[in-house]
Amino acid sequence: MSRRIAALLAAAGLLLGGCATISDGLDAINPFSSSAPKMPPLTPIKTTADIRMLWSANVGKAGDYVFTPAVVEGAVYAASAKGTISRIEDGKVVWKIDAGQPLSAGVGANSKLVVVGTPKGDVLAFSSDDGKLAWKTKASSEILAAPVVGDEGVAVKSGDNQVFLFDALDGGRKWAYQRATPPLSVRSAGSPVFADRYLFVGYPGGKLVALALQNGAPVWEGAVASPKGATELDRVADVVATPVVDSRQICAVAFQGRVACFDMGQGGAMVWSRDISSVSGLVMDGRYLFITDDKGIVYGLDRLSGSSLWKQDKLKNRRLSAPVIRRGLVTVADGEGIIHFLSREDGSFAARQKTDGTPVRAPLQALGSAVLVQTTGGDVRAFEVQ
Fold first, then answer.
1. Secondary structure (3-state) at 78
2. Nearest in space to 106 (alpha carbons), one of 128, 73, 130, 129
3. Could you tell me which CATH number the domain at 66-188 has?
């Protein structure tokens, strides 16, 4: 059982960092295991959608980390492991800076700030206008999840699962929250989410926690999964991916657990849950929820009830990213940097596009009507359905 689970984590390509093994007794699982299932070849498809690449730029390699581009009012901010940060508009690099040290997480941004994290736990904020350093502060450990910039401040989740809220003006700490975690957990690149009066954070042990923005106190928590099994590895049941919010509904998914949706207006009451395990993530629109599981299967679900709409299993073991929805298509990327466009209504293949051939671990982003992807090789590309 433990070997099977380790292989699933390796296949996901999301779990990062050092060479931890179970015998080491460390709090991480190594994703680069040789036991990861080999990606099967793709079968031909009938193309039914015309996809055009709008632009591409190279921002530097991700290394062993996940870097997700941020989109703010049409501007794209992207970072690399060596420390470069770029602002891109319509495919042109407006500015590019060197943070002065290696980076491990990013990018969080709004119209004023661009924020990244480092392996040493530093939080660096730069002006979105010109890339000049605005402030620098410290979290408790290596930062793996992209910081989140909101009206209330900058939220950062560190690798030891502590959560911090910093003042956006000067980086001063507003509060920090820490809770006990299991002895073994997945190193997560999933970010917190601002919604309503709370900051929502996914945790090891399958918990989704709502923290009060005023002081960081836990207001309620939802059980996305419950640890089960005889060994510590079998009992890993972590909310790894970023939760998604729409109106009063918030949904999250756990590795070796479930996808579950909660009603924020009813004190976090569970609306529905389904037994689907994922380390990649999910997305939802006004009617549907779409999720990629840890085997590379894409599901379309009714967001109000969780009932099945369709299942696309022809990308199994291809190490899929979290999906994004644009122009009636659900789009995912795989471990060879190939972008797959699926019909929102039935999951059938509509088109494919290649990138630079390196894996895509970061969730795909929406850029207007286009889809934005960043590969581990550093390619940032925007694709649009014609």
1. strand
2. 128
3. 2.40.128.630
